[in-house]
């Protein structure tokens, strides 16, 4: 059977959701259904999906989630980051008002759950993320159930992080969770958004999330994505960003969970002075498959992009990194730097890394590179000569490698949680959880 | 380690194979080679594509796309364009039913 053969099966699962919403939304959803029916789920013959096979996911059966917020109190509390301020909690993708807190918003900032406020998002939905980006993006647009709309008026500054907590619970029938997150920052608006995905250890749901970010002139958004779902979970995500003059977007993408996890990031630098910083870490154990694909389009002169992704792979885990930077013909005087470093902790772990740089302009400053290796024996020797045992020395060096990415995280609660999670997920023989 | 039931041994004829998927989403190809059953990961290490559709010759499976060959008993690669071995999985027969381990052989 080819992947196209599963298209009808997936459409029948989401059918009840397709007609939800007012007429403009139903039309939008119907268009996405047709797109999905044509495109189907992505197959390995597509260059972008060459290293990530979703056949096993396509075969699985999922149901749409029902409201389970009342049974999830303990799980929400257990997985929550210690962040004060604005918080929206979603249990299996559905908004839970009881767990959320929205009263700390400054004037000019609108943060709303999407399902009940879809009309507010009429001008935003599907504007940055094209439905045909992949079959998963089309499926999300066709049948998202809930999500968030963050609309910041010009010059609005939200000091507190906007914390979006997504909790996945264990079910007899695995759920298809499809959140949609829309962020619009007006002229010179500023905010920090934390997307946090976690859940029960045995949860085996499928999260298919799409985030759209639109930055006007001078706007600044810092975006954290912390993916800590269970190792039985499937997680497909795409983040689409479009930036205007002098805007700045910073992404911290930490990928620790999931049986199969894929994150796409697509950034359009559309006007002079726009800058994007992409910071990423993936850590795989067991048979996890973790894929990160990024694409930065320099569409205008004097734009900047910086990208640093690091991967640590243990056991039989597989990592994929594809970082593509395209400098278009008129985009003179741009600067683009990209690097990807990988640490393989086992002989059976594997990384497919592909930095791609396409330059059509002739006056630019660009660099890219990728490394893959094991721990440095000289550094190990240096630590051991100071009295550390081998397991501890290996653990510290591995954590130090990850910390090059983690230390760029500016929110202490997020930084500490990630450092602790990474230390706890290192191979058992050099678990450093007690030390950080 | 758990054992996954594949099919009755009699249902897989000599020179034929069947596919099963483990809980970890690894697809395995279980082949009958001269009456002996072997399980190999259903992935060509050249392009990660499936080996399904390939024929069995001299105890080896031939990739249907580019002709790479893998020993069904050991997983060893024996012909380019693949250069890396693939995992093999222990197989046993219980009451006439072929069962395959969900963990690869060491």
Can you describe what's shown?
The complex is a heterodimer of chains A (436) and B (106). Helices cover 20% and strands 37% of the residues of chain A. In chain A, helix 6 crosses helix 7 (390-406) and helix 7 (390-406) runs antiparallel to helix 8. A ten-stranded mixed sheet of chain A has the order 2-1-5-8-10-12-14-16-18-20. Chain A has helices at 7-18, 23-39, 55-59, 73-79, 135-143, 377-384, 390-406, 412-425; strands spanning 86-91, 94-95, 109-113, 146-152, 162-168, 176-177, 179-185, 190-199, 206-215, 220-227, 234-243, 248-255, 260-269, 275-284, 289-298, 304-313, 318-327, 335-344, 350-359, 365-373. By secondary structure, chain B is an all-beta fold. Chain B has a single domain, classed as 3-layer Sandwich (Rieske Iron-sulfur Protein). Chain B is built from no helices and eleven strands. The two termini of chain B are 13 Å apart. Classes of the chains: A alpha/beta (436), B mainly beta (106). The interface between A and B is small, with 12 and 7 residues.
Distance separating the two termini of chain B: 13 Å
Gyration radius of chain A (Cα, Å) is 21 Å
N-to-C order of helices and strands of chain B = EEEEEEEEEEE
The CATH first-level class of chain B comes to Mainly Beta
Give, in spatial order, the strands making up the sheet with the most strands of chain B: 2-3-4-9
Would you tell me which CATH topology of chain B applies? Rieske Iron-sulfur Protein
Q: How many domains is the backbone of chain A divided into?
A: 2
Number of strands of chain A: 20
Number of helical elements of chain B:
0
């Amino acid at each position: 059977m080819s992947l196209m053969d599963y298209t009808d099966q997936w459409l029948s699962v989401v059918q009840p959701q397709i007609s939800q919403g007012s007429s403009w939304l139903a039309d939008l959803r119907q268009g996405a259904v047709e797109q999905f029916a044509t495109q189907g789920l992505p197959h390995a013959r597509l260059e972008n999906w060459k290293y990530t096979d979703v056949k096993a996911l396509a075969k699985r059966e999922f149901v749409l989630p029902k409201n389970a917020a009342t049974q999830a109190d303990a799980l929400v509390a257990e997985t929550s980051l210690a962040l004060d301020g604005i918080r929206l909690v979603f249990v299996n993708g559905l908004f839970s008002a009881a767990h959320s807190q929205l009263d700390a918003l400054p004037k000019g900032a609108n943060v709303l759950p999407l399902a009940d406020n879809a009309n507010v998002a009429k001008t935003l939905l599907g504007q940055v993320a094209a439905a045909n980006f992949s079959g998963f993006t089309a499926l999300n647009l066709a049948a998202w159930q809930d999500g968030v709309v963050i609309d910041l008026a010009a010059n609005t500054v939200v000091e507190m992080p906007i914390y979006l907590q997504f909790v996945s619970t264990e079910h007899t029938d695995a759920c298809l969770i499809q959140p949609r997150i829309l962020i619009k920052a007006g002229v010179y608006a500023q905010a920090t958004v934390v997307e946090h995905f976690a859940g029960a250890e045995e949860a085996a749901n499928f999260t298919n999330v799409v985030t759209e970010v639109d930055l006007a002139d001078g706007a600044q958004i810092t975006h954290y994505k912390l993916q800590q779902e269970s190792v039985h979970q499937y997680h497909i995500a795409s983040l689409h960003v479009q930036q205007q003059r002098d805007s700045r977007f910073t992404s911290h993408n930490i990928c620790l969970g999931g049986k199969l996890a894929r994150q796409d990031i697509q950034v359009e630098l559309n006007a002079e002075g726009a800058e994007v910083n992409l910071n990423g870490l993936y850590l795989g154990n067991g048979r996890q498959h973790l894929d990160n694909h990024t694409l930065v389009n320099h569409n205008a002169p004097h734009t900047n992009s910086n990208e640093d992704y690091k991967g640590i792979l243990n056991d039989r885990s597989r990592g994929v990194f594809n970082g593509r930077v395209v400098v278009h013909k008129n985009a003179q005087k741009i600067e683009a730097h990209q690097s990807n470093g990988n640490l393989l902790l086992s002989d059976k772990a594997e990384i497919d890394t592909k930095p791609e740089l396409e330059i059509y302009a002739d006056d630019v400053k660009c660099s890219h590179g990728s490394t893959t290796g094991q721990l440095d024996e000289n550094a190990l020797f240096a630590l051991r000569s100071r009295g550390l045992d081998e397991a501890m020395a290996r653990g510290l060096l591995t954590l130090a490698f990850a910390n090059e990415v983690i230390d760029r995280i500016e929110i202490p609660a997020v930084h500490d949680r990630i450092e602790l999670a990474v230390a706890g997920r290192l191979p058992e023989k050099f678990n450093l959880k007690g030390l950080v | 380690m758990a054992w996954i039931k594949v099919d009755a041994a009699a249902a897989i004829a000599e020179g034929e194979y069947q596919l099963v998927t483990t809980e970890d989403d690894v697809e395995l190809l279980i082949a009958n080679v001269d009456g002996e059953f072997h399980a190999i990961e259903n992935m060509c290490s050249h392009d990660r594509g499936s080996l399904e559709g390939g024929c069995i010759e001299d105890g080896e499976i031939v990739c249907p796309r580019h002709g790479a060959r893998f020993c069904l008993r050991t997983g060893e690669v024996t012909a380019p364009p693949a250069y890396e071995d693939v995992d093999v999985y222990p197989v046993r027969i219980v009451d006439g039913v072929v069962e395959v381990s969900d963990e690869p052989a060491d």
